[in-house]
Amino acid sequence: MEIQINEEVLDGRNVEVSEVNHKKQVAFSFDVTSETYHDVTSLLYKNDFDVSIPEKSLSFSATILEYATSTTNLYEKGNTSEFYLKLREK
């Protein structure tokens, strides 16, 4: 499922949308390659996002609630890691 964060488009898997204390949340996994690692992590370090999920007609401003990665060795060419991200509405 396409998830737009700021101007980046991610291919989200296992997308879960919920609402907690009247604030939207979205949790999903996506792959990051050694070639896209720098761009993705630079985006995530901003921790200030405009989130859009066109398929669900959903958009909101968010920050990171949870973040995890299956490996941190993306400096070696050809490696791929699964990132998990949970964003919460501001």
Our estimate of the beta-strand percent is over 45%
CATH topology: Elongation Factor Tu (Ef-tu), domain 3
- The helix content is 10-25%
- Main sheet, how many strands, which sense, barrel? 7 strands, antiparallel
Give the radius of gyration: 13 Å
Coarse morphology: elongated
- By helix and strand content, what is the structural category? mainly beta
Query: Would you state the CATH class?
Result: Mainly Beta
What does the oligomeric state look like here?
single chain
Pfam families: DUF3219
InterPro entries: DUF3219, YkvR-like_sf
Protein name: DUF3219 family protein
Organism: Oceanobacillus locisalsi
Descriptive account of the structure:
It contains 1 helix and 7 strands, in the order E-E-E-E-H-E-E-E. The chain is mainly beta and 90 residues long. A hairpin with a 2-residue loop joins strand 3 and strand 4. It is elongated. This is DUF3219 family protein. It comes from Oceanobacillus locisalsi. InterPro entries: DUF3219, YkvR-like_sf.
